[in-house]
Amino acid sequence: METMISVHSALELITNHVKSLPVEVMQLEKANGFVLAEDIYAPENVPAFPQSSMDGYAFAFDNNRSDYKIVGEIAAGSKQTFELKQGEAVRIFTGAAVPLAADTVLMQEKALVESDKLTVNDESLNKGTNLRSIGSEIKKGTKALEKGTVLKPATIGFLASMGIAKVKVYPNPSVGILVTGNELRLPGEDLEYGQVFESNSFTLQSALNQLNINNVTIYRSEDNLNQLQTLLSQILEVNDLVLISGGVSVGDYDFTMDALEKCDVNAVFHKIKQKPGKPLLFGTKADKVIFGLPGNPASVLTCFYEYVLPAIGIMTERNVKLQAKKMVLTQEYQKQVGMTHFLKASHNNDLVYLETGQESYKLSSFANANCLAIIPENTSKIESGQEIEVHLFPF
């Protein structure tokens, strides 16, 4: 395992080590936002019968005729059929089955009706008007949706219209968030001197929920190797993705690395040439994915957006990583070469402004930001007015 790798190398290693989750069969009503794991072919013609697209009157079109005899009525869902003769019509409603002998529907606003006599009052009427032919939406056996399609309301409705109740999708991961630290207390608890309120689990769970990932369990451990190891072993048994907050540095009370080693986790990398979030750890155990995140709140969210998010994208076959754009920095920025800087920033009209309070413990500036400004590893100075890369927050 190489020490202090580049941002690019870290992303490359994540891409090479993370695999998509096993395909699941899911009820259609629960599949919104998931990605299809199969091609879908229409099991039937849609519509399966000639269908009226209007309330009106159905008949066989005759260019030399304007009057028809009304011989019945067909409502949507009716099984009634009519053997229409030339010159006969039926009252029909939107969605109802058009008699086989009919080929045209006159909308009711263009109809003059007296008793059982229908007079056509539409000079633009043509054969086939207001009639949905069999298979005009999609024909039986035709590919309806391709594998890799993101399911959304329109595609969910389309699948339902074909009578499809279940689909194969790439599922969301089950996620275990492990928070470590003797100094941490939950919001609402009494805070003693030397203690701080724990926020990282709230941040991470909220970020996951925004991705429609709701199978999330929070675990907490003191800075105790045995306790951490026992808990971590249990978490790895039941979760696809494990996010550990804290304990990945080299202090006397940082036990995450030792616990991961005792749990036979393969540490792919530990420490990236970046600020904030240098001590980030990425590992795997069989098909499990593990991230050891720093303890500082801004570092946690930065690492989530830049590394955990792409891993989730691979696991779920979804394009969820931050969108990258080029924008103009409105102020000068200097740093030493050797570290990529991820800076909390806000953009407006392709201009990007750095937030005050870039320290890794400050979430207040993150709360005001809508993007991260990227200052590359080998860059020492960015001039005001210079174009840089920014990563846009998804929400």
TrEMBL record:
Q: Which UniProt keywords apply?
A: Magnesium, Metal-binding, Molybdenum, Molybdenum cofactor biosynthesis, Transferase
Catalysed reactions, as listed in the record: adenylyl-molybdopterin + molybdate = Mo-molybdopterin + AMP + H(+)
One GO CC term of this entry? cytosol
Q: Which GO terms describe its biological process?
A: Mo-molybdopterin cofactor biosynthetic process
Q: Which residues form a coiled coil?
A: none
Which is an annotated GO molecular function term of this record?
Answer: molybdopterin molybdotransferase activity
EC number in record: 2.10.1.1
List where the protein spans the membrane: none
Give the matching Gene3D superfamilies. MoaB/Mog-like domain, MoeA, C-terminal, domain IV, Molybdopterin biosynthesis moea protein, domain 2, Molybdopterin biosynthesis moea protein, domain 3
SUPFAM superfamilies reported for this sequence: MoeA C-terminal domain-like (SSF63867), MoeA N-terminal region -like (SSF63882), Molybdenum cofactor biosynthesis proteins (SSF53218)
Domain named MoaB/Mog: residues: 176-314
- Cofactor dependency: Mg(2+)
Q: In UniProt terms, what function does this protein have? A: Catalyzes the insertion of molybdate into adenylated molybdopterin with the concomitant release of AMP.
- NCBIfam families given for it? Glp_gephyrin, molyb_syn
| Name of the protein | Molybdopterin molybdenumtransferase
Species this protein is from: Flavobacterium yafengii
